[in-house]
Design a protein that fits this description.
single chain; about 700 residues
């Protein structure tokens, strides 16, 4: 925990103190008292800069018995309870935060950026509890839904759920949503090492705070990147997100039915950040930023993940230091030394920071792009890299702005870039630390997936009779694009419809055989907006073979022409393995994977507002008999639409006739309850409680 008053305030105060001392030469008690008063009053014109490292709650995460040095052959069952409920930032649990920085670290205090708003939390924390386990541990999480009227689920992002597809957390695809007032137990194997993360997959709960870190470590001797770092500590996990000033569902509805914007206005790092300036008793302060401590001369493995909810890639850099990425989405890569790294929503990157500079505090900088850039709210943030034994800050938080978070130099994973420039490196240009399974043969399936925003009368937003897409004011249209879009590509052969003229609402399912080699060519037509879409695959990792950008916009036909001419160059020499990848605006990305995991696996854009309007599909891998059986008493859900019988009145009459069959019921009364005492006979309807079917409750309680 650190706090700093601006140097200018200290110098000015020194002059005031000397003047007071001169006037009160012989009254020692007066200057001391005046000293305090003048100090506080002068501080009113400056801003207090403060930061926080670990809190009592995050230390609880680190004290969990599963946070340990991983040993080969030794696994544990790691149990957690997540109580999901509506909560708030800057609530009563925060006491005098940010003016007393210790109060910002109190249990249940979610300071965020200092702005009060409703959130969805696990255990009243933002972000939620961090899970740190070892490979092959069994993870058991009881999710207690206390949301009142909303259901929930949790997706374990990066965990492939091999043999446990029912634990993937996609509502109505792999499980029923968890109803309010019930508990659901997730139980899965932590078989995929690396930096993963967990988040709600229901509605906008991820947007509103329902997310957290999930890190699966290996024994050091099994970690292929062990030679590149000295320390890998849970305290150096960075959970990044863009942040709205209201509930996600409100932003979504207002954006789609009016001209209201949906742009994030700041970023958070481990649930903290400066944005709202508070003032009390003429003292001004931001909520504290995150602080990571390092020892001089040591190399630290940082694990960063992006929970970006909007189209907000985040550029990460550290003043006076380079970053050396060594893994992406849990998969090792050849180390690359760069000045900055761009992280897209759903991606995870591990990078090494060498604490080799002059011991001092340095800014860790985060700059939001696209929906977060300076055309809109200029969302940015900082944290502190503090060398042990140092005090103070690199500067005042009041002086940090969007432009000051830029870092010049070599950039990895640059926004909307194609390989070949030399001043940056794309995800397609990095190399895996080892050769993954060979995907160079002719694929068994080759899918072309083009996407963009299309101007159609989606009845959820534009009633075709009352306020058609083409009849409302331009600022009220959701998307602006030509109408000649071939929607037939959006449903497979068994669900094909004529979607050329009308909006289609249908599942997009691609059926592939188990162990088949699948190639997917993603084409972002880029007609609407200057955008970018990070796509995430559940249940599998893929290899990134190619990436390119043809211009601000393109067509599937253009990319197909390149492919037919042999100009869609695929790299098969240690291509990087990932489960989340970006597609440049007006460009393409080519990926391949072996569909080795039977089940129904979602593939979707990881931007919350985009998946809500349909930017996703499902891979059905293998046949139904290949799926593992559901766990015993696993909750089921579905429609209940029995046949309508016209003799309902007769059924009701018969029911009450049966009730009218009287029986004698004797009831013992308390002494004095009636003059006669003893017993009284009651005559009237009686019936037995019907026996319910032996089926589990939807929430999974036994």
């Amino acid at each position: 925990m650190s706090l700093q008053l601006p140097l200018t305030g200290q110098l000015t105060f020194l002059g005031i103190y000397m003047a007071v001392l001169h006037e009160a030469m012989n009254t020692s008690a007066v200057p001391v008292c005046v000293l305090f008063v003048l100090f506080v009053r002068h501080a009113a014109s400056e801003v207090i800069t403060q930061s926080l490292g670990e809190t009592e709650e995050t230390m609880e995460d680190l004290s969990h018995p599963c946070v340990r040095e991983c040993v080969r052959g030794e696994s544990q069952v790691c149990r957690y309870t997540f109580t999901v409920e509506w909560y708030t930032t800057m609530g009563k649990a925060c006491y005098d935060c940010p003016f007393n920085v210790s109060d910002c670290a109190r249990p249940h205090c979610a300071p965020a950026d200092g702005f009060e708003r409703a959130i969805v939390t696990a255990n009243r924390r933002l972000p939620g509890p961090a899970i740190h386990v070892c490979q092959w541990d069994e993870v058991v999480v009881d999710v207690v839904n206390e949301l009142g009227s909303d259901s929930t689920t949790i997706h374990w992002h990066g965990i492939h759920q091999r043999g446990t597809p029912y634990m993937d957390g996609v509502p109505f695809l792999t499980q029923c949503p968890i109803p309010a007032g019930t508990t659901f137990r997730y139980h899965f194997l932590a078989d995929q090492p690396g930096t993963q993360y967990w988040h709600s997959h229901s509605g906008f709960q991820r947007t509103d705070g329902m997310f957290g870190a999930l890190v699966v470590r290996q024994p050091r001797e099994e970690d292929p990147q062990r030679g590149h770092f000295d320390r890998d500590e849970p305290q150096h996990t960075l959970v990044l997100t863009d942040w709205l000033d209201g509930l996600g569902v409100a932003k979504f509805v207002n954006h789609h039915h009016t001209e209201h914007d949906n742009k994030p206005y700041t970023l958070l790092v481990n649930g903290r950040g400066k944005h709202v300036l508070h003032e009390k008793d003429e003292v001004r302060a931001y909520t504290p930023v995150y602080e990571a401590t390092v020892t001089p001369g040591k190399r630290y493995r940082f694990r960063a993940l992006s929970n970006s909810i909007q189209n907000c890639p985040i550029v990460v850099s550290v003043d006076n230091h380079t970053l050396t990425p060594i893994a992406t989405d849990g998969h090792p890569i050849d180390p690359i030394e760069v000045e900055s790294l761009t992280i897209y929503g759903g991606e995870r990157w591990d990078f090494v920071v060498n604490a080799s500079q002059v011991p001092a505090p340095y800014w860790i900088k985060f700059q939001g792009m696209l929906d977060c850039d300076d055309r809109f709210k200029a969302a940015h943030q900082v944290a502190v890299l503090r060398y042990e034994g140092t005090e103070g800050f690199p500067g005042s938080l009041a002086e940090v702005n969007y432009k000051s978070t830029v870092r010049e130099g070599l950039e990895l994973n640059k926004l909307n870039a194609a390989p070949g420039d030399g001043t940056f490196i794309t995800a397609a240009e990095i190399r895996g630390a080892a050769q993954a399974r060979d995907v160079s043969r002719t694929p068994d399936y080759k899918f072309w997936l083009k996407f963009d925003f299309y101007g159609k009368d989606n009845p959820a937003f534009h009633h075709p009779d009352f306020y058609s897409f083409h009849e409302v004011r331009k600022e009220h249209r959701l998307f602006h694009a030509p109408d000649d879009v071939d929607y037939s590509a959006f449903c497979n052969a068994t669900h094909r419809r004529n979607c050329l003229g009308d909006f289609c609402h249908c599942p997009h399912v691609l059926n592939v055989e188990r162990d088949s080699l699948v190639e997917l060519i993603l084409v972002d037509e880029g007609v609407v907006y200057w955008a970018n879409h990070p796509f995430h695959l559940h249940g599998h990792a893929f290899q990134v073979l190619a990436m390119g950008r043809l211009g601000e916009n393109t067509t599937k036909a253009n990319v197909q022409a390149l492919d037919e001419a042999g100009k869609l160059n695929r790299n098969f020499d240690r291509p990087p393995s990932k489960d989340t990848v970006t597609v440049p605006d007006g460009g393409y990305t080519v990926i391949r994977f072996f569909a080795s995991n039977p089940g129904y696996w979602l593939f979707h854009c990881h931007i919350s507002f985009h998946i809500e309007v349909g930017m996703g599909l499902v891979f059905h891998v293998g046949s139904g008999e290949m799926l593992p059986p559901p766990p015993p008493k696993f909750p089921t859900c579905g429609h209940w639409r029995p046949e309508v019988e016209r003799d309902l009145k007769a059924q009701v009459d018969k029911y009450f006739e049966n009730l009218n069959g009287s029986v004698d019921v004797s009831v013992d009364l308390l002494p004095g309850a009636s003059e006669g005492g003893g017993k009284v006979e009651l005559h009237g309807p009686s019936y037995s409680t019907p026996t319910m079917p032996n089926t589990p409750a939807a929430g999974g309680r036994e």
